[in-house]
Amino acid sequence: MDRPEGSPQGGTTRTLLLVDDEENILRALRRVFRRDGYRILATTSPREALGWLEREPVGVIVSDQRMPEMSGVQFLSEVRERHPDTVRIVLSGYTELEAVTEAINRGAVYKFLTKPWDDELLRRNIAEAFRQYEMAAENARLARELRAANEELRRINEELEERVERKTRELAVNIRSLRIAQEVLEHLPVGVVGIDDEGAVVVANQAAMEHLAPGGVLVGLPAEAVLPAEAAELYRDFVADRRGTAVLADGSRLVASPMGPPEAPRGVVLVLLGGED
């Protein structure tokens, strides 16, 4: 079957609730809306209609005003309290205009249509009511998605802030540890010289400077150019065949070892020991 005029593009069924205490009015309304493809619920009892609304996803309600159980305005006011998203329409005579106008002003009723009705005008009004209902439902859906997206963004930001805070604490600990390690290295009772894999001196503590280059400079210069001859020779020998010990002229012992893990050294460490060790 072709999609009826005014039905949603996605194919969702539009449910229309008709409430009138006259059966012949309900039959006539059914005939009017038959071609529009609505799912139609019809009853002569407003109280029965309220029960249906608890179970059925109704979009638009068309109610008579003058009914024995309760007036259309009373019925639709109660509907507004329980199901505010529905679009509520009164279809009645001009004699009830004042009461219905008051209900419209209070928001209980979306529109007032008169009896007798024009079929095509009535159909257009109901189609427009469903468009209003679906637009409001879509806006509500988008608002929920936006709230969910904002909540997810807030959660992600909190996680990022927590990670940054944790990393900042770790970095502070690492910096403090590095400073302490530098202090320890600087004041070791033995000399330590670090030479990178390009042959430049990158580390030389106080004891090394006093013994190997008193008053001079080691860090940043080529090891073979600035170290004493015995130390430079030990460095060359260690790089060539991993021989790791030499004795300096003053009897001190110089020991070479890889800088970094043995399987992937990043240079050479020379450790200056006293002559008696």
Automatic annotation (TrEMBL):
<feature type="coiled-coil region">
    <location>
        <begin position="139"/>
        <end position="177"/>
    </location>
</feature>
<protein>
    <submittedName>
        <fullName>Response regulator receiver domain-containing protein</fullName>
    </submittedName>
</protein>
<dbReference type="InterPro" id="IPR035965">
    <property type="entry name" value="PAS-like_dom_sf"/>
</dbReference>
<dbReference type="InterPro" id="IPR001789">
    <property type="entry name" value="Sig_transdc_resp-reg_receiver"/>
</dbReference>
<dbReference type="InterPro" id="IPR011006">
    <property type="entry name" value="CheY-like_superfamily"/>
</dbReference>
<feature type="modified residue" description="4-aspartylphosphate">
    <location>
        <position position="64"/>
    </location>
</feature>
<feature type="domain" description="Response regulatory">
    <location>
        <begin position="15"/>
        <end position="130"/>
    </location>
</feature>
<dbReference type="InterPro" id="IPR050595">
    <property type="entry name" value="Bact_response_regulator"/>
</dbReference>
<dbReference type="Pfam" id="PF00072">
    <property type="entry name" value="Response_reg"/>
</dbReference>
<dbReference type="InterPro" id="IPR000014">
    <property type="entry name" value="PAS"/>
</dbReference>
<keyword id="KW-0175">Coiled coil</keyword>
<dbReference type="GO" id="GO:0000160">
    <property type="term" value="P:phosphorelay signal transduction system"/>
</dbReference>
<keyword id="KW-0597">Phosphoprotein</keyword>
